[in-house]
Amino acid sequence: MRVLGLVIAVLGWLIAVSSVELSSVGIQTLVAVIGLLVALGGVLGVLNSAHLKNAIWKS
Amino acid sequence: MIARFNKLRRTVSLLLATAWLCAGMMPAVVWATDPLPVQVAQAAAAPAPAPAAKTPPPVPITDADLKAVAGPKPDDLAKGDPGGTLTGTVNDIVVSDSKKGLTLADLVNMVGQNRIAINLMWTLITGYLVMFMQAGFAAVETGLCRAKNANHTMMMNFMVYGFGLFAYWVMGFALQQGGCAPNANLGGLSPLNSEFAVNFIGGKPWGLFGQRGFFLSGATYDVGVMVMFLFQMVFMDTAATIVTGAAAERWKFAAFGVSSMFLAAITYPLYGNWAWGGGWLSQLGANYHIGHGYCDFAGSGVVHAVGGVSALAVSMIIGPRIGKYRRDGKPNPMPGHDITMVLIGCFILAFGWFGFNPGSTLGASGSGNLRIGSIAVNTMLAGCTGSFASVLYMWIRFGKPDASMGGNGLLAGLVAITAPSGFVNTVGAVIIGFAAGMLVCLSVEYVERVLKVDDPVGAISVHGACGLWGVLSVGLFADGTSNYGGSWNGVDGSVRGLFYGDPSQLVAQIIGCATLVGIVFTISYLGNWLIDGLVGQRVGAASELEGLDLPEMGALGYPEFQLVTSGLGRSVEVAD
């Protein structure tokens, strides 16, 4: 799960940088925002959930 | 009624006549109050020249003209110069050949050296201010931790300077700035001329890291490079010390040392290169016509968000402090031991920020650098509105103006204005700071209650969340009035955000944020994961419960005091 979270984070970055060659600024903005949100989801969602599974306060 | 109207009309007429007279006399008043140069005074005494006379063509100054300029006589100088009118004259210009005397070449070289000297001096002094911010961080973090960890927390803030500096000297600076030349403000920095790049999207070169300046050896033994190193080093150290706050009270000191060196040698320099060292983020404008490329004037992203996401990575890996969360996952408040230390630390940081932001011009002379006053005022205003917003938020939400969040609000505003400080006006600065003050309160609650990541000092929110906000705000509020030598990141013209006509600048800033979250976080996480496996990041439970001062450092922070826990002692508690 930790590795998956990191992979999603990097994937989010790839989505964001893929916007650089799009022609419309509006679409560029949209794609970049999606990339940022995917990266955040990977870190704050998937990766953090993996850490919370074995959190010290649950034991 | 008519009499009253006539009286009013006479009064208005009298006022208009007075205004007209004043307007007519204005030039005379100005001439009378301005100190007149001798030539002008003589011209005024002479008959007026014919109006149709042509301006004579400019006559080049020759060495003979310079020799005709006489400085003050030694006898006059021997009497002292209380008014300062005899000091700093032609006598003080250095001549290259005393037999020839003063030449035009001497004069021109002196002008050039004075400009660079002003810029080197400015950059050094502001760098010294930033270095002093370490004291502010130490006070804030130690004050927000419990007394039983005071020595340990203070020592992490103290030693991060040494660990970080060493790693940055060995390789961090080279990776970050090794290809940043040219830089007109600091004399060119010509030795820093090699950037490693690969061709990526669209076959465009993507600069990844610099290749000159390892150990500051070889050609980088250069006056300008040394100044650049000092300034960049204290910035890196700011990023490194952010992590110590988030991981405080349970971080093994040895792991902290290795982790800090990793940040100083790898994580920070890479992003610093991409943003400031001529790397791919800064070239998004030149390569893909996306605004002026990623713009981060003083480091909301490079310094604060890098520190913030690294703090998040380390906090996730080492987990929360014992007792921070109940079995049901609800957080327990764990108040710091000295709020006075916290607020004094915040003031020290606010003072140091006047080096952080205005110093990032890397000069005070030429290339639009006179904007330093505007940058300083923006810094001041955003910090002010940040603390105002957070205090207001806490007061409304919890009924008391919480002191620690007031301090964090000040820092949040300062963090957020760091990237846009050189590009926005005062109204933009006020809005950016106010939003950051609100954001830090929301983010602290989110990190603590939703993510359940333990951050004793709020570093992830102050530096991570507000750092990202600062990066984005450039793409919104940059007003297009800055002119640092006519271009930025190799793109002509001034930086403009969405609200001032360039929506593509926002795209560059969002890509910068995605890089911070997607790449910088990942590098930091992987590095610290490895350190966790090799050294172990977290202290043992017994040490943590006892407090880290004795087990980790061998001495208590407050040996003559009996430390007791008398209730929660927090003025404002997060509502269940």
Terminal-residue CA separation of chain A? 20 Å
Strand order in the largest sheet of chain B: 1-2
User: So how many helices of chain A?
Assistant: 2
Low-confidence stretches of chain A: none
Biggest interface between chains: A-B, 36 and 37 residues
Look at the helices and sheets of chain A and give the structural class: mainly alpha
- Stretches of chain B where pLDDT is under 50 for at least 5 consecutive residues are 14-46, 567-576
- Biggest sheet layout of chain A: none
The number of helical runs of chain B is 18
How many strands of chain B? 4
Strand content of chain A: under 5%
Molecular structure report:
Chain A contains 2 helices and no strands. Chain A has helices at residues 2-17, 25-53. In chain A, α1 (2-17) runs antiparallel to α2 (25-53). The mean pLDDT of chain A is 95. Chain B contains 18 helices and 4 strands. In chain B, α5 (104-144) runs antiparallel to α11 and α8 (253-276) packs antiparallel against α16. In chain B, the strands form 2 sheets. Chain B has a two-stranded antiparallel ribbon. Chain B has a two-stranded antiparallel ribbon with strand order 3-4. By secondary structure, chain B is mostly helical. The interface between A and B is large, with 36 and 37 residues.
